[in-house]
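Worked example

This section walks through a single chain of length 140. The input is the sequence exactly as stored; nothing has been trimmed or padded.
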Amino acid sequence: MVKESHDRLRGHVRETPGRDAEPSAGVIDSRSVTADAVVGADSRGLDGGTLVNGCKRHVVVDTLGLPLAVVVTAADTGGRTAAQAVLTRITAGTHHRLNLVRADGGCTGSLVEHCLAALAPVLAIAKPTDDMRGFVVLPK
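Given that input, the structure is written out below as tokens.
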């Protein structure tokens, strides 16, 4: 019921400026967050890249930033593994128009090949150049 309401609301927000209710492009990324004390040890892990002991949120949003899917894993879960799960979830579900998903360099290798072979969307990787320092919006 909540998912249906969310999908209808997202469709309405997208149609207001004249867009199609169903997105054709999206962005995937993940973020590790420190887990609260109430989160059990079996649900948390240590992210080796950020040294965060907790959970990792894997999120796919449309080009307006509206969420399409969220998967929460232990922080030590590999980004490609979780990305494959969340991309399979959105393409198997109601987001049949999604044909392009942009990602950062953490989603390279077998995940790109998996998307080409088994899923509808093409996974486009945006990589930073050598002269970029700090937080920089990556080019398309």
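What to look for: DSSP finds three helices and six strands in the chain.
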